[in-house]
Amino acid sequence: MNRHAFIAFAASLGMGVAFLNLTPALPTLQAYYGVSYARLGLLVTAMVLTHSLVQIPSGLVVDKLGVRKGLILALGLGFLGCFLSIFSNRYSFLLALRLLTGLGTGLSFVAGLHYGTAHTPENQKIRVQAIFGGLINIGSVVPFFTSPLLLQYDGRLIHLLTALFFFLPLLAAWIWGQNPEKAAVVSKMQVSRVFTAGPAWTLGFSHALFFGGMMTIGTWITSYLLKTAPGPFWLPWLGWIGGLVIAVSAAGRFLGVWVPSWLSPRTLIIGALALLAVAYGGLGVSRTLPPGLVLLGVAALMSSVTFGSVFSLGYRYSPPQVAGTTIGLINFIASIGAFLFPIIFGYLLDLTGTFTAPFLFLSSLAFLTLLRVFTLPAEPG
Questions:
Q1: pTM of the model
Q2: Are 197 and 203 spatial neighbours (Cβ–Cβ below 8 Å)?
Q3: Which of 135, 175, 192, 320 is most solvent-facing, going by the fewest CB within 10 Å?
Q4: 274-312 residue pLDDT tens
Q5: What is the full DSSP assignment across 28-41?
Q6: Looking at the domain assignment, is residue 381 inside a domain?
Q7: Cβ distance 345 to 263 under 8 Å?
C-alpha cells in the first residue's frame, strides 16, 4: 500500500477518536457544566447529526474541489472543532464546536475513503476500504483508554489529543497529498445520474441494514440479554457479553479485507443479507440465551464484513468524477437507517412487550433488501 492509503487510514482513525472522545468524560462534564443528562447527551449526538446530514453535500464538495483539497478541508474543520474547544468553558461554545467537528468528520469520511480508494490499484481497493472502515471502530475505542487518564491532569487535554489525530493526517495530506487523476469538469448530468441510478440507492439501503442493524443491536443488546438471561448468575457478565458481541462487529470490518478474495462483493452482500434475515428471524423466535448469543454474533459479523464490498461496488458503479457524491449518498442513506432503526425497534418493543416483532421487522427488511440487491448487475461497468 502507498502513502496515500496511510493518509486515508490516519484520517479514519481520527474520525473514530472524535466520535467518542467525550463519552468516558461525560460524568465529569456534567458536574463541570451543571447541565442535564439530555443536554449532555446532545454533545455526542450533535456531532453525529451533522456528520450524517453533510454526507451528500460532502460528496458534491469533494467532486468539485478535488479529493486532495476536500480531504485537507475536512481535516482542517475537524482540527479546528477540537482545538478551539480548549479555549472556552461555556457549554454553548463546546456544543457549537462539536457541530463543527461533525462537519469535518462527515466530509472526512467521503474525502478519506475516496482519496484512499482512488490512489489504490484495482485489486487492492476493497482491502483499503475495509481497513478504512475498521480503523474508525478502532479509533472509537481509543478514548476509553486515554480520556480517563487525561482527566486526571486537565480535561482540555482530551480536545488537544483529538485535535492531534486530525492535525497529523492534515499535515501529511498538505505535504505529500496528490489528486489521483487529472482535474475533470463535473457536469450536472453526471451528478444527476448518481441520484437517479438504481445501484447507489440499492447499496445505500444495504448499508443501512448493515450499519443501522449494528447500531440497533448496540442500543438494545443489554435489554435483550436481561430479558433472556436464565438467572441472576449471568447478570454480572452481561456487560462483558454485550461488549464481546460488539467486538465481533469491529473484527468483521477487518475480516472484510480478506473475504473478497474468495467471494465477489455482490455475492458477499447477498450472502450477508440472507444470513441477516435468518439471524434476525431466529432472534425473533428464540427465548433462551445461548442460541440468542450465537445469532447476535452472526448478525454483528454479517453487518460489518461487507463494509469494503459496499463502497467498492459504489465506487465501481460510479463515474470517477462523481465518486465522492456516490459515497456520500450511500453513507447518508445508511446514517438515516442508523438513526431510525433503533427508534422503530424500541417502538415495536413498547407496543408488543416482546422482542419478536422488532427482530422480525429487521428480518423482513433484510429479505426485501436482498431481493433488491439481486437486481444489481453482476459486473459493474
A1: 0.76
A2: no
A3: 175
A4: 999 999 999 988 877 778 888 988 898 898 888 888 988
A5: HHHHHHT--HHHHH
A6: no
A7: no
Residues 323 and 207 in one domain: yes
Which grid cell sits at 176? 505529500
Concatenate the DSSP letters of all residues of 124-152 into one string.
GHHHHHHHHHHHHHHHHHHHHHHHHHHHT
**26 plus 172 within the same structural domain:** yes
pLDDT in tens, 261-284: 788 889 999 999 999 999 999 998
Locate all alpha helices (DSSP H) within 353-377, ordered by sequence.
Answer: 356-373
Q: Is the Cα torsion angle 154, 159, 161, 164 positive or negative in sign?
A: negative
The total domain count for the chain is 2
- Three cell numbers at 295? 445469532
Range of the domain at 284: 191-373
C-alpha distances in angstroms, 291 versus 91, 203, 221, 339?
A: 45, 30, 14, 28
Q: Residue 69 contacts by C-beta under 8 Å, 6 or more apart in sequence?
A: none
What letter represents residue 290's amino acid?
A: P
Total H helices, total E strands in the chain:
16, 0
Tell me: do 128 and 208 sit in the same domain: no
